[in-house]
């Protein structure tokens, strides 16, 4: 049984699974249910100044795809709509009841030092383990100069982080918005400001659909809609890339990362950890299925680690980071070929039509004794993987490295590259 | 499905509505939710095997995808473009030996996409809107006579009308639909579906039906050829086969097809006859349908007698299961040798070198009603009143690859030619393709 416990920027929790700051962590009632179910920790739904904000009715939109619900999820909610004192009292009571769990409090107050200075001691008084600065919320709060309006300006991120570090002894996690062109800029700003950790991603600005009867973006509030924040399985690839991007920067080495975005299963979590995350945070998957998913999250991760011989999370944490390189560092001589397992093939023809119409005409559609047979034409296959993705049968099309006899080489040395760097003539010759 | 097969009820005379309730419906319509979930199971295959297995070649992945995207009307049009009887085919096709048998999901999971039920979902949607989705081409001024208002005749008539020709259908009976109206089991086409579907088909316009106008006595093929630019024969098979054994003309012996016809047209009369011990002789789907319905109507025991084994039965495995799970016993390797008052004498059979041997071992089973379901043959009587006859082959009308009989301008399709299996969907494919052949003939 693998050891799943973590010490994340000084915050301890029995497992790396935290509930992200969102409706699941909005009240003591939910949080207690979550912690009882076995979640390692929670980031309390973002607190703000009194009077509390007011939410609209109809708040969520979602994408269903191929019969699967909530592939992508979108909300136009704001931070907590309950008075500060109520939240603080509940946080205190929860922390007292669950001393071994990570109780982190998300905060968003106006971009003035006094505002932060005022709220920090109140949070500290609850016994919470740390704070998370919500610089991410892309709607509602940003119009008021908070949330992503701060997160999109690196100087503000640095400034607010610094204030918090000055006015509290609690670890400070800075939650980054993905609504920027270069995630490294706010990450570095947080780092400069003295952040103990970063967490990412918050939601992505989005319109999930247009109601074609009401002619308004969804969710429709009366007769109108607004953009919201996108999350759920659909955003995982975007989040994973941003996490990896930060993890591989030498100048931020050692900065703990809490990975967030589309994590639904232990496998997703393992990927974020391999990409450098110390903890992971989950919102949509819990909102879709309830807190009980924690069972499989912990057990699945632990079983997988046992199978791989990883005793602790740190045994594989960040292990994929060195292999996340820039395109120009890839081996341009590597070649892989599609292979069809004819015993598994059900003759649906999807690989053929995909490759024929949109790739490399490398899958022949044959008739053998009247029956359909699909065969890869090795000479035409460029190893793009398209067929293996469209094939509906698991492991029916697999990719296999092909012997090219060529050495490792990258685009940087390739003869077709006008900006190539001089290299030993042998490999250049081999390429030519 | 039907409930309450209790014996005690057999003496009770039921109303038509009660009988319909008793027979129930073989398969229920999908809800929109079920349709969406099932549609999502389709892989949208390229060069899909299911399309090849459908005699009318419906673009199955195409229409299923449209259901999935919520374009249900478009799905229906895709179906009806290939098969104007898409609604009844969705109900009566033995999909387990057609499209669904070769569905790649069957290969992958042993559970095909239920193409028939999706087809029904789409066609029902369109028919309930009371809309006819096709328009006629500019009128050609050509007139075509179609004999027989069964699936082949009406499919031909509809396509001819679409192509701009004027069609007159001559039908011997008082109602259209052929075996869809008179032969198909009641639980496959409930709520007068066959009639509603014909109305839908005729709403294209340009088709007139003359009921009670049999080819033969007054109306001859010669006169039709003289009066019309072309003729299509969709006569079906109307001669029930005989057993050729003693006692066949006893009053408790009936032809199964005739019995089903009574059931479809005069249900209360059929119910009155469905009593005691019933023996059904035959191994095709007529035997299955007759046996199952007579059992549902209240007969005490119903036994199908077939002279070979389960694998040789014309009825599919699904059909055999259907009968058996509805209280019908199927006994194999028994051939009737004589019908007696209140019983049937049967000889045991066996195979020797692939040949069927009727042994001397005879047993008797009690029978209050005997239904013969040993197939129908083509009746050439209606044609015999004509001076010039088309050529015949294998007991049916001979055609070439283009549905032409040996007589110029005379085309034929459906069961009366037997180009493929004797199925509704084959008759529809024949009628449709013959219409195009006629169109080519008329424009030459
Ligand atoms: C009991 C039974 C159950 C069946 N169940 C199924 C099933 O579940 N699924 C399936 O796919 N198939 C089934 N079939 C087969 C299917 O019904 C036929 O293949 C199909 O109806 C053939 O169509 P058709 O147009 O060729 O002939 P028919 O449907 O027989 O139509 C012929 C038409 O021509 C008319 N006609 C005949 N002679 C003359 C004449 N001299 N003058 C004018 N009109 C004439 C008839 O009255 C009839 O209207 C079943 C058949 C039977 C007998
Ligand atoms: C309804 C809803 C409300 C949210 N509210 C907050 C919030 O108050 N503060 C915050 O930092 N993030 C908030 N988030 C963002 C989540 O914490 C998380 O970053 C995001 O949903 C991505 O994770 P996921 O894909 O697991 O849902 C909210 C998300 C949702 C769906
Ligand atoms: S890997 Fe790409 S090129 Fe090769 S067969 Fe598959 S789709 Fe075609
Ligand atoms: S996609 Fe897969 S199952 Fe379908 S034909 Fe190609 S190899 Fe076979
Ligand atoms: S074979 Fe099955 S999965 Fe493929 S297109 Fe036909 S119905 Fe769909």
Distance between the first and last residues' Cα of chain B: 53 Å
CATH architectural type of the largest domain in chain B: 3-Layer(bba) Sandwich
CATH topology name of the largest domain in chain A, in short, is TIM Barrel
Give the overall silhouette of chain A: globular
What is the CATH top level name of the largest domain in chain A? Alpha Beta
CATH class of the largest domain in chain B: Alpha Beta
* Average pLDDT metric of chain B: 94
Largest interface: A-B, 13 and 14 residues
Strand content of chain A: 15-25%
Q: Name the CATH superfamily assignment of the largest domain in chain B.
A: FAD/NAD(P)-binding domain
The portion of residues forming beta strands of chain B comes to 15-25%
Helix and strand composition category of chain B: alpha/beta
Helical percent range of chain B?
Answer: 25-40%
Textual characterization of the structure:
The complex is a heterodimer of chains A (432) and B (444). With 432 residues, chain A is of the alpha/beta class. Chain A has 2 domains: 6-323, TIM Barrel; 335-403, Alpha-Beta Plaits (2-Layer Sandwich). Helices cover 29% and strands 21% of the residues of chain A. The model of chain A is unreliable at 427-432 (pLDDT under 50). Chain B has 3 domains: 32-128, Orthogonal Bundle (Fumarate Reductase Iron-sulfur Protein, Chain B, domain 2); 143-238 and 378-443, FAD/NAD(P)-binding domain (3-Layer(bba) Sandwich); 240-376, FAD/NAD(P)-binding domain, CATH 3.50.50.60. Chain B has helices at residues 16-23, 32-41, 49-53, 60-69, 72-82, 86-92, 99-102, 104-109, 115-128, 151-162, 179-182, 193-202, 221-227, 256-265, 267-273, 285-296, 317-324, 381-384, 424-443; strands spanning 143-147, 166-170, 207-210, 230-233, 239-240, 253-255, 277-281, 301-305, 328-331, 334-340, 343-352, 355-366, 369-372, 376-377, 392-393, 396-397, 410-412. The N and C termini of chain B lie far apart (53 Å). Mean pLDDT of chain B is 94; it is low at 1-10. The A-B interface holds A 66-67, 346-350, 352-353, 365, 372, 392-393 and B 36-37, 40, 43-49, 104-105, 107-108. Flavin mononucleotide is lined by residues 20-23, 45-46, 73, 75, 77, 79, 106, 134, 136-137, 175, 202-203, 231-232, 235, 260-263, 282-285 of chain A. Residues 42-45, 48-50, 60-61, 64, 103-105, 113, 115 of chain B line the site of one iron/sulfur cluster.
């Amino acid at each position: 049984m693998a050891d799943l416990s973590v010490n994340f920027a000084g915050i301890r929790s029995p497992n790396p699974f935290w509930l992200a700051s969102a409706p699941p962590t909005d009240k003591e009632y939910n949080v207690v249910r979550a912690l009882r179910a076995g979640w390692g920790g929670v980031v309390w739904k973002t607190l703000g100044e009194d009077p509390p904000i007011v939410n609209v009715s109809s708040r969520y939109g979602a994408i269903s795809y191929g019969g699967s619900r909530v592939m992508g999820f979108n909300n136009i909610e704001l931070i907590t709509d309950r008075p500060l004192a109520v939240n603080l009292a509940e946080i205190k009571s929860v922390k007292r009841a669950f001393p071994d769990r990570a109780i982190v409090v998300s905060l968003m107050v106006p971009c003035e030092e006094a505002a932060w200075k005022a709220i920090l001691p109140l949070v500290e008084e609850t016994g919470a383990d740390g704070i998370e600065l919500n610089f991410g919320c892309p709607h509602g709060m940003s119009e008021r100069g908070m949330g992503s309006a701060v997160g999109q300006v690196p100087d503000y991120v640095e400034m607010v982080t610094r204030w918090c570090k000055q006015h509290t002894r609690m670890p400070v996690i800075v939650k980054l918005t993905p609504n920027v062109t270069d995630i490294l800029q706010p990450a570095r700003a947080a780092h400069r400001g003295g952040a103990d950790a970063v967490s990412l991603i918050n939601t992505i600005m989005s319109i999930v659909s247009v109601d074609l009867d009401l002619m308004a973006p969804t969710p429709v509030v009366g007769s109108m809609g607004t953009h919201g924040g996108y999350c759920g399985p659909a955003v995982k690839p975007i989040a994973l890339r941003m996490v990896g991007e930060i993890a591989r920067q030498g100048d931020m080495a050692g900065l703990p990362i809490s990975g967030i975005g589309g994590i639904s299963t232990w496998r997703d979590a393992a990927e974020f950890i391999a990409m450098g995350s110390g903890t992971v945070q989950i919102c949509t998957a819990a909102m879709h299925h309830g807190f009980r998913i924690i069972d499989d999250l912990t057990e699945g991760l632990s079983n997988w680690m046992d199978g791989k011989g990883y005793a602790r999370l740190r045994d594989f944490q960040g292990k994929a980071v060195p292999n996340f390189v820039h395109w120009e560092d890839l081996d341009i001589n590597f070649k892989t070929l599609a292979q069809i397992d004819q015993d598994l093939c059900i003759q649906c023809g999807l690989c053929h039509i995909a490759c024929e119409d949109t790739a490399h005409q490398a899958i022949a559609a044959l008739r053998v004794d009247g029956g359909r047979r699909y065969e890869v034409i090795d000479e035409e296959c460029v190893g793009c993987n398209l067929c293996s993705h469209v094939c509906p049968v698991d492991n029916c099309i697999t990719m296999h490295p092909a012997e090219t006899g060529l050495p490792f080489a990258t685009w940087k040395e390739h003869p077709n590259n006008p900006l190539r760097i001089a290299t030993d003539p042998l490999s250049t010759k081999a390429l030519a | 499905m039907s409930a309450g097969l209790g014996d005690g009820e057999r003496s009770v005379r039921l109303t038509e509505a009660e009988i319909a309730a008793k027979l129930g419906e073989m398969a229920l319509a999908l809800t929109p939710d079920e349709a969406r979930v099932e549609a999502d199971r389709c892989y949208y295959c390229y060069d899909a095997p299911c399309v090849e297995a459908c005699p009318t070649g419906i673009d199955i992945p195409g229409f299923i995808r449209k259901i999935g995207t919520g374009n249900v009307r478009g799905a229906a049009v895709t179906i009806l473009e290939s098969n104007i009887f898409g609604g009844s085919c969705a109900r009566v096709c033995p999909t387990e030996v057609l499209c669904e048998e070769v569905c790649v999901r069957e290969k992958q999971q042993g559970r095909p996409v239920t193409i028939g039920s999706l087809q029904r979902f789409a066609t029902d949607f369109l028919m309930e809107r009371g809309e006819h989705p096709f328009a006629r081409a500019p009128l050609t001024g050509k007139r075509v006579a179609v004999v027989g208002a069964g699936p082949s005749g009406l499919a031909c008539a509809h396509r001819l009308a679409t192509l701009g020709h004027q069609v007159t259908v001559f039908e011997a009976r008082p109602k259209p639909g052929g075996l869809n109206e008179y032969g198909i089991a009641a639980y496959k086409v409930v709520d007068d579906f066959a009639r509603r579907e014909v109305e839908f088909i005729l709403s294209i316009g340009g088709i007139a039906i003359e009921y009670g106008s049999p080819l033969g006595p007054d109306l001859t093929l010669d006169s039709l050829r003289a009066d019309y630019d072309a003729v299509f024969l969709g006569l079906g098979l109307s001669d029930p086969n005989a057993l050729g054994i003693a006692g066949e003309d006893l009053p408790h012996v009936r032809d199964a097809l005739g019995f089903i016809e009574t059931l479809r047209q005069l249900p209360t009369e059929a119910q009155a006859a469905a009593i005691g011990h019933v023996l059904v002789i035959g191994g095709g789907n007529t035997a299955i349908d007759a046996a199952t319905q007579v059992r549902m109507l209240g007969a005490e025991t119903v036994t199908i007698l077939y002279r070979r084994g389960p694998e040789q039965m014309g009825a599919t495995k699904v059909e055999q299961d259907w009968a058996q799970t509805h209280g019908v016993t199927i006994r194999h390797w028994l051939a009737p040798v004589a019908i007696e008052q209140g019983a049937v004498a049967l000889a045991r059979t066996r195979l020797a070198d692939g040949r069927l041997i009727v042994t001397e071992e005879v047993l008797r089973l009690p029978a209050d009603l005997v239904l013969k379901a040993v197939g129908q043959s083509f009746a050439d009587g209606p044609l015999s009143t004509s001076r010039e006859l088309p050529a015949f082959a294998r007991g049916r009308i001979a055609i070439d690859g283009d549905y032409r009989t040996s007589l110029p301008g005379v085309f034929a399709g459906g069961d009366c030619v037997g180009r493929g299996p004797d199925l509704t969907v084959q008759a529809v494919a024949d009628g449709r393709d013959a219409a195009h052949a006629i169109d080519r003939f008329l424009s030459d």
